Amino acid sequence: MEHKDKQKQTFYVVGKRLDGLDEKAKVAGSVIYADDFTMERMLYAKVFRSTRASAKIKSIDTTAARSLPGVVTVITAEDVPNNRSVTGAVGQTAELGLVQTVQQLVLAEDRVRFYGEPIALVAAEDPDIAKAALKLIKIEYEDIPGVFDPEEAMKDDTPKVHGDNNIIAHWELRRGDIDKAFREADVIVENDYQTQFQEHAHLEPESGVAWIDDDGVLNLRVATQVIEQYREIAHILGIAESKVRIRGTLIGGGFGGKEDLTVEPYIALLSWKTGRPVKLTYEREEMMYGRHKRHPYKMRYKHGATKDGQLVAMEATLISDSGAYVYLSSWVLLYSTVHSTGPYYIPNVKVDSYSVLTNNIYTSAFRSFGAIQVAVACESQMDILARELKMDPAELRAKNYLKTGDKTGTGQRIDSEVLLTETQEAAVKALGDRSKPSAPYMKVGRGFASCWQSYGRMCYLHDTSSAWVGMELDGSAVVRCGIPDLGGGQRESLRQIAAELIGAPLERVHVISTDSQVTPLAGTVTATRALFMSGNAVKLAAEAIRHDLLQKASEMLGENPENLDMCDGEVFASRNRENKIPLAQVVKAIKSEGNPLEVLRTFRAPAAEPVTREILEGQIFPDFTFGSQAAEVEVNTLTGKVNVSKMVGAYDVGKAINPKRVEGQIEGGMAQGLGYALLEEFIEDKGIPQNVNLTTYILPTSKDVPDIQSIILESGSGKGPFGAKGIGEPAIVATAPAILNAIYDAVGVRIKKIPATPESVFYHLKERGERT
Amino acid sequence: MDFIYEKAGSLAEALKLKAKYKEKGVFIAGGTDLLVDMRNNVLESEPKAVIDISDLNEINYIRQENGHIRIGAGTRISEIQKSSIVQRNVLLLLKACREFANPLIKNRASLGGNLINASPAADMATPLLILGAKVVLKSVNGERVMSLEEFFSGVKRTNHRNDELLTEIRFNEAQGKRCEFLKMGQRNGTSIAIASLSIMFDVADGVIKDPRVALGSVAPVPFRAHKTEGALNGVKPSLGNIKRVGNILKREVNPITDIRGSSEYRREMAALLLLMAFQNLGYARSEL
Amino acid sequence: MAERSEMREVKIKVNDEWVTGLVKSSTTLLRFLRDNGFTEVKKGCDEGDCGACTVLLDGKAITSCLILALQADGKEVTTIKKTGDQLLETLKEAFVKYEACQCGFCSPGTIITARWLLNENPRPNREEIRDALSGNLCRCTGYQKIVDAIEHVSET
Fold first, then answer.
1. Whether A685 contacts chain B with CB within 8 A
2. Which of C134, C155, C123 is nearest to C61 (CA)?
3. Counting C-beta atoms within 10 Å of the first and last residue's C-beta, which end of chain C has fewer, N or C?
4. For residue B278, is pLDDT > 90?
5. HSE-CB of C97 using CA atoms within 13 angstroms
6. What is the pLDDT of residue A3?
7. B66 to chain C nearest CA, in Å?
């Protein structure tokens, strides 16, 4: 089956539900994940972590640990060549402008600032010995007052986590005359919202092995979303960047959890010191209390509208908990600020956002990177406003959706198509008939939410992505591209794009990826940028090859290049398939004339100047993905338990390179969103973790997620390959508010703090006096 | 954790080994509680030996004789769920099996293990309490039989001696009665109960007869709510009555606040699960 | 410190191959499998919460992290790499075709659970499939396509 496209006449590979080679290897059990890899003489590492949230380290004695038979070395901060060199750059090199990069510490020095903070490292001959050694490390703490609430932490007279100010980021949106607009508004709706710490809970623990190869290069084979972290490792060790090589593995889930440095500094230090390979794999509890979470947000939102539903004003204050270290908090806050208006045109906007240090677990990247929290507030506001106005929530939104050509709250012009109304209609329609309650104490409700999420990194980072494509004599091909694969099929997309353009069968295109010294650097697999950036890079390289192939084939077939097409290892005349020639023959002819048919290309994202003011203005992101989700819930009015019975997600992805992978992203994102809305919360009490395993941190199981319908729209207007947009993060954004709106529809209570646990819903119902 | 592993080839051998190690020897059957506890260092003391009884056929059976049902303590929950004896005669137990963890756990977890672990949330406990179950404890010195109600003595504590093995759970058949098992968890999938309830009763001449109510997760042990049973006995199963009895039940429970829920919520849930059970069975839907 | 127990020999049949090794009494089956090269069996949590380590033990799907290696002595373990099992192969093909495998970390466990399910119940409905899978966590797919894949196999 073939599809037509604006750019190409027909598609043979792109757009098809093809089976991926990586998936085949995964189900065969033959993929070697990070922890599956072993080397001879390999040591096993463990991390000694703080059990206080805020304390001075009075003394630390590692003698007993060192003396344990089988322990090879123990490292503390003083053994780290550059303990304070890690920046918040995460794979970028451009000026970071106002974004603060308070230095992170590889290992705690004289003070610990969160429970779980790494203090020392142990390497031993086997993991049980390393674990036993941790117990032998003697440490004396002296508690110092900590602060655990971000609003508290903003005050002058509270303990300071670093330096003299806990507020580490502040952004603003300013447009129009907000006071006048509210004065003139017919209806005003103001509410407070709150979201929680969420844990990535990827199935694969953070893991990696480091060793020094026979060229003296430090190699790290590690599950990471950012192979550019080799630079940070080099700085930590005080060695040349060219002496560190990161080989990324196929990752068992990341969602932003493997974006900052995880095991890399530790295995690097231990391997460098011992001269032996070192493996470190985190335990599940360690992942829960020692690794970053999604930022909790407190949000105050105020909307003003005319009586016929025109949004005229929006004012918001956002406060995020940065935890004990900055990491990516400034950037996450920036995303929240930009996305805080929701996908609506609002002429008067005033937003002030703050990210604040506390002695809670540090917070950083997690799928959607700040857009999901504001969507909870914004999409709840829209429903509340609709009810105030006695308007259909769908109609209210449709009236205010951004359109192509509109300017966002930062004044960025939307230049791709906006199919919000179409996604909203598709999602709501697909819910079908309203289900009947399954018992007298059950009530059924429906809700939806619309969302937007940027794809591609912030323009001021001057993002680039490179790829190399080379043809083999027999018509097969190799693609080299640094992009890591999180499990979303990033690598398979590149394979499909290359195969399409160079006419080779999918199985004959080999993609070698994620090696910082072998594959051209393609940037991070974050920010929904993988397809956009690395897909475009591969497309550029493959198009250059295609050009040469078609030129030579036109000589050999006696046809103009515009009349030729390629697929399945053959080049042929579009109007007469019998006039054809094997691809291999064309390749041989080209190579024999001295053209190696190997191309390296770099794709450059739209760039902008660094942010120098707190007021965010101009083009912040390359573009946005728009979508809507709808949910049907059944609320048990006795217990407060919410069961989601139907879910639909509809997104304009521009162009689906492989529709089943796009669906997979939508469905997976929605399941995570369901967990965010109803089940998941990492809880700390004065900085002490309360739930540190998957029995007490509640993830959605197959019995908690209903059948999900995913609907793909393709406007072809994206900036990615073939008009694609991105879907990885957008998929999670609208779920929670859709469910919250459905709960309101069912039982008339407005939950403004998530997760909406049964106990929370129960007490809301009790307050409202609702009973069957 | 380092201990001596002993495999018991027979019941007699298991009892000898237990007599040898006493409280320093711990039985392992399914291991689904024990291994987790060992990993998290929550056992009272490190065992010197672990005695493997997971393959003992002698405690793996489901029998029906003369109106009694006897289940070997080593029988897996998955086997209980599949058993036609259980499906035909003990709907209440079947319902509990359905809500029990997940199939992977059920393929290993044993009935005896769930009871010995004696979590206040033990899923299999409340149905068996309703059924008036008795437990059989064997040692090299002989055998004791006690009621399950007596067996639970405190939070994760049972009344067995340090040389005893729980070998069997027995109870009378209970066909034809109205019964319901409800488990309120934090999610639909594998959950430790926030509150759970088992109930069994007859309705004759429009009133409740022989009501039995047991609750989990709302007291230090799974327990029979005798006061509530007394209040239900002989009354019409109307909405008003069940709500009224619910208030009695609220005073009979003794819940705590933990990571899964507050004590106030659990207290409310006890009464509401009671109402839900009646409504599920077609009662208590109106004032009439 | 507690006295160390000796290492004991254990012999387990893994996918038609008898594997012998020395283990501590506390060594889990999961650890034994991974240490002996069966790294297709994944460690996700090591305490029975996630299902990534699911294997068949004498035909029953169980979490190998909750069994001592010594308890599996003389028994048969099946992992996703078992050859010659047509139903297993069909399930793997379906997982690829239906995109039930994204990051793939839960797949070795999930496919084994599916294999066990279809043996117990050759024609499960979607609710029964979801119930059977409830011990296998997946963070990537939202379970949708996993259920689709298993349903497809059960219908053919």
1. no
2. C134
3. N
4. yes
5. 13
6. 40
7. 31
Residue C156's pLDDT is what?
84
The label of the residue with tokens 């959605």 reads A700
Last residue of a domain, one of C78, C95, C121: C78
Distance from CA of A740 to the nearest CA of B (A): 17
pLDDT at A611: 83
Report the residue of chain C nearest B34, measured CA to CA. C66
The verdict on B66 touching A (C-beta cutoff 8 Å) is no
Partners of B28 on chain C (C-beta within 8 Å) are 68, 71
pLDDT in tens, A674-730: 999 999 999 999 999 999 999 999 999 999 999 999 999 999 999 999 999 999 999
Low-confidence ranges of chain A (pLDDT < 70): 1-9, 95-97, 99-103, 770-772
Residue B43 is predicted with a pLDDT of: 80
Q: How far is C86 from chain B (nearest CA, A)?
A: 22
Considering only the beta carbons, identify the residue of B189, B191, B279 that sits closest to A439.
B279
Lookup: tokens for C129: 């499939």
- Cα separation of B11 and B58, whole Å? 7
| C-alpha span between A259 and A256 (Å, rounded) | 5
| Nearest CB partner across the interface for C62, out of B107, B188, B189 | B107
| Average pLDDT in chain C | 96
> Looking at the complex, does the CB of residue C60 fall below 8 Å from at least one CB of chain A?
no
Q: pLDDT tens-digit profile of A118-131? A: 999 999 999 999 99
Tell me, what CATH number does C26's domain have?
Answer: 3.10.20.30
Instruction: Specify the CATH architecture of the domain A297-458+611-768.
Output: 2-Layer Sandwich (3.30)
- Residue C97: which domain range? 86-155
Alpha-carbon gap: B187 to the closest alpha carbon of chain A (Å): 7
Closest-CA residue of chain B to C2: B2
CA dihedral angle for residue C115, residue C121, residue C122, residue C123, rounded to 10 degrees? -120
One DSSP character per residue, A181-244 reads HHHH-SEEEEEEEE--------SSPPEEEEEE-TTSPEEEEE--S-GGGHHHHHHHHTS-GGGE
Q: What's chain B's average pLDDT?
A: 95
Number of domains in chain C: 2
Residue B174 pLDDT > 90, yes or no? no
Task: Specify whether C70 is located in the same domain as C114.
Answer: no
The answer to whether C9 touches C21, Cβ cutoff 8 Å, is yes
Are residues B2 and C51, on separate chains, in Cβ contact within 8 Å?
no
Co-location of C90 and C149 in the same domain? yes
Q: Which of C3, C25, C134 sits opposite B5 (nearest CB)?
A: C25
Please tell me which of the candidates A440, A683, A762 has its beta carbon nearest to residue B268. A762
How far are the Cα atoms of A5, A392, A724, A769, B225 from residue A727, in angstroms, in the given order?
20, 28, 9, 41, 53
Cis peptide bond N-terminal to A755, omega within 30: yes
Judge whether B244 is closer than 8 Å to chain A, CB to CB: no
Query: In chain C, which among 56-115 make CB contacts under 8 A with chain B?
Result: 60-63, 65-68, 70-71, 73, 113
Taking phi first (over 0 means left), then psi (-120 to 50 degrees means alpha), and beta for anything else, what does residue A163 get?
left
Partners of C67 on chain B (C-beta within 8 Å) are 31, 35, 108
Q: Which residues in chain A are classed under CATH 3.30.365.10?
A: 21-31+464-604, 297-458+611-768
Q: Between chains, do C140 and A488 touch, taking CB under 8 Å as contact?
A: yes
Separation in Å, CA A246 to CA A221, A267, A464, A480, C35: 6, 12, 19, 15, 25
Please judge whether A29 and C133 are an interchain contact, meaning their C-beta atoms are less than 8 angstroms apart: no
> At B19, is the pLDDT very low, low, confident or very high (cuts 50, 70, 90)?
very high
Tell me the CATH number at C94.
1.10.150.120
